[in-house]
Structure formats: structure tokens, C-alpha cells
Amino acid sequence: MRFPIVLFDLDGTLIDSGPIIIRSAAHAVRVVLGREPDAELIEEVRATIGGPGLVAMMELIDPTHVDELVAAYRVENERLHDSLDAFDDVLALLPRFRAEGRRIGIVTAKRRATAQLAFDRFPLLAEHCDLLVGGDETERHKPHPDPLLHALDRLDAGPASAAYVGDSPFDVRAAKAAGVFAVAVGWGGIHPPERLALEEPDALVGGAEELLCVL
After folding, report:
1. How many structural domains does the chain have?
2. 90 plus 123 within the same structural domain
3. Closest alpha carbon to 130 in 17, 8, 12
4. Among candidate residues 48, 83, 118, the one where a domain is terminated
5. What is the pLDDT of residue 41?
6. 132-141 contact pairs (CB < 8 A, 24+)
7. Residue 97: predicted pLDDT
8. In angstroms, rounded to a whole number, what is the distance separating the alpha carbons of residues 193 and 188?
9. Beta-bridge partner residues of 7
10. Which of 108, 131, 185, 199 is deepest in the core (most CB within 10 A)?
């Protein structure tokens, strides 16, 4: 095998969470700020997904109401997890990788408690992942390499043995900074493939079979 360690982002990579993230952010704007989010704001929010985290997203929306926005977002987002979808063809790769003897990790900007909602909804995540690194486990977040380096340290592995699979520019930058093989995926619906290509990932793939070939 090419990479005995495969690390995955969560949002837009394994789970199709872009729509509920946008809906949750829009809900927070309506409830806390009393206005309808316009298209420009929605695109600004979309561009932050997968990066420094929820607090940074809400600081972008309104730095004077961050705590209220975060609270309103989390209530709505947890409710919407009952309708969360996954990229089933990608999830199906996890048991295949484990059968090959690879170790699988998830490194996400989500805090662990929120990521656990996805684990509860999709048992394959819990069954076939060796570790989860949430956004609340390192002081610095993607695009800094710290979350990936933390994952590798917990797996007692070096960067050369690992690939990181993600759907955002932040994922590509973090992978490169950590010295792991950077795989950008184009199916997430959050960040367009042409935007990912600008980050010059080691590979840009459009589907599960193509990902399998790369890894």
C-alpha cells in the first residue's frame, strides 16, 4: 500500500454537511441579529468552512455577538443532524482500508461533541476509525499543521507514511505544512474544485474510485 495512514477531514469529505452548516449559520443570523442573511454573507460563511472553526466563522458575521451566534448555531445544527447525509461510496472505503491493514483517522475543525453526532448517525465512522481529532484539541487549527501532527503523534507515525484527504483549501494547506500527502476532493459541494486546484494539492480527485487509486 502507498499510505498506511489515511487521515480524513469530516465535513464535505465523509459527510455531506455543507447544507446544514449553511442553514445553521443563516438561522443564527436571523435569531440573534434579526435580519435575513444575504447571498454575499452566505458565500463568506461558505469560504470559512473547514478552517479555523465556528468561533472564527461567527466573528466574521458579527464580532460583537459571537457567543450568541455560536449558541444559536449549535442548537440548530444539532437539530439538523437528524437529516445529515453521508457520501456513502466514500464511507464504504473505510472498512476496505482497515482490511488492508491501514490505520484511519479523522481530523476535523468540529469540536469532538459535534463530531460525535456524525459518529452516532453513521456507525461506520466509529467502527473503522482509529482516532478522532476535534477542533478543540489543539490550540491552533487548520490551516496550521497542528491537528494533523497531533493525529500522527497519537498514531506514532511519521508524515511520510500518511495522506490527508479533505475538501477545503485549509485542508490542503494543513497537509502541506505537516508534510503529509495532500489529497483534495471535489465532491463536497462547499469549495469548488477550481478553488482547491489553486492550492496545488498533491492530488485532486472527483470520486471514491479515483481516491482509492491515489492512496
Report:
1. 2
2. yes
3. 8
4. 83
5. 92
6. 132/105, 132/106, 132/108, 133/105, 133/106, 133/107, 133/108, 134/108, 134/110, 135/53, 135/54, 135/108, 135/109, 135/110, 135/111, 136/111, 136/112, 137/112, 141/51, 141/52, 141/53, 141/109
7. 96
8. 9
9. 105, 164
10. 185
User: Is 9 an annotated catalytic residue?
Assistant: yes
Neighbours of 32 (CB within 10 A): 20
The answer to whether 131 touches 119, Cβ cutoff 8 Å, is: no
Radius of gyration of the chain measured on its C-alpha atoms: 17
8-state DSSP, 157: -
Per-position DSSP letters for 7-46, written without gaps between them: EE-SBTTTEE-HHHHHHHHHHHIIIII-SPPPHHHHHHHH
Residue 35: what pLDDT?
94
- Cell triple for 11: 465535513
DSSP 94-106: HHHHHHTT-EEEE
DSSP code at position 141: -
CATH number, position 125: 3.40.50.1000
| Active-site residue (options: 9, 11, 16, 167) | 9
Q: What is the pLDDT of residue 52?
A: 87
Domain edge (last residue) among 58, 83, 108: 83
